[in-house]
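Q: What changes when D-mannonic acid is included in the input?
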Amino acid sequence: MKHLNQENLALIDSQISKPLFNRSKLKTGIVHIGVGGFHRAHQAYYLQELATKTNASDWGICGIGLREEDRNISTILKKQDHLYSLLVKHPNGTVEPHIIGAIVDYKFAIEDAQSVIDKMAHEDTKIVSLTITEGGYNFNPATGEFDFENSIIQEELKHPENPKSVYGFLAAALQKRRANKLPAFTILSCDNIEHNGDVTKKMLLAFTQKLNPVLAEWVEKEVKFPNSMVDRITPVTTPEDISFLAKNHDLKDEWPVTCEPFIQWVIEDEFSNGRPALEQVGVQFVTDVKPYEKMKLRLLNAGHSVLGILGALHGYQTINECIDDPLFNQYLKLFMDLEATPVLDTVEGIDLDVYKQRLRERFANPNIKDSVSRICSESAAKLPKFLIPTIKENLDNEGNIALGTLVIAAWCYYSDKQTDLNNHPLEVIDSQKEVLQNSAQKDPLCFLEQEAIFGDLSKNERFVTLYEAMVKDLYHNRNVKKQMENLI
Ligand code: CS2
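A: The predicted holo structure follows.
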């Protein structure tokens, strides 16, 4: 069996598409923080397409890991000369394998923080992009302000020469560029947050104002933070994906990525220091991305949470299993039509009915097997961005809220019991897992009083009455499908 690395590339099965450009000539114009499955299936794929199509040599990627959890990917990428396989899984069962070579370097901050700062401050670096997850931006969800209570941030402000957080590294690198009279890089957030660029800007400015007001002024003037909307469903890699490559292609890749065929990236065309011509490979550049972001977060991501949380309680394992159930399918359709759509703005060039229909088809891809545990993971960070704002806006407009409210009621049960309704244990992955469980165990209202997640929702009588009745019914009758039926 061939190990995936540069030397073996020529020997690898010709059925796999491989990087055809000269990787050793690729400059790292992009430094990317947070090289998870999504980045590898999305941005790195686009940059590979670009390098293949145009032979552009300025836009390779240097990956960065800031957290101990990144040690594994750091080790594997190094071993594989930063190459990995991407398995695109089509609904008809076809698997389309690619080897991606757009990442050409990786730096692990825990082992060498200075090399991370130097890389970001290097003149070849034009863009620093981020996938640091919805929970990674360090703002207080109730106020939207930077969280100075975070002990890591407090430590960094005392010792800026020893950065730990994304803001510490960005500030150190920008400071170095400024000192070296180099232009600022663009900071491009690729996380599922409305106005992700504006949020990043606000947070970085709050941090740098405390750290060094002169630097803050420079950042405000020189650094651009385009908002962007990113989309490609990327399930968690399974041992079967690894053995698929071994069995079918005689290839040993320690951490391949899988994804659906669909891909989309919409970015505001505001860059500090140049950008790749990604429009040549299908990326849309627009002046205002907000309507696209909102549409995607409130339909796709919220739709995922609706299926995931209700599906987990019922005992389903995957998203396609949920959507194959006509009741779940119809419930999702109604949630999108009656609760999410009324709060959306019109999106130029998009027919929402077609978009929604396409989403349900994407969720139904039987080859993807996206796990409900992935969808439910980190719900404490996701729901305040995906679902809760829709409920609040509908409350303000006296719109429908019942379908979304059942998801919150189900999440209370899920957090408390950490089992499905038939007592089978669930794999709950959430950095807030204990806090969620403690409050849900006290009582359902206490769950709702977690302001950092729900804001002031616990003070809305219409919502609370409905929610409490739904929670009561779930604990008593333990039948989520019955409640879903009653609502449609
Ligand atoms: C998912 C997203 O994390 C989630 O709950 O909704 O990861 C989703 O699959 C991607 O945003 C698709 O672009």
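Observations recorded in class: The pocket of D-mannonic acid is lined by residues 192, 231-233, 300-301, 304, 375, 382 (CB under 6 Å).
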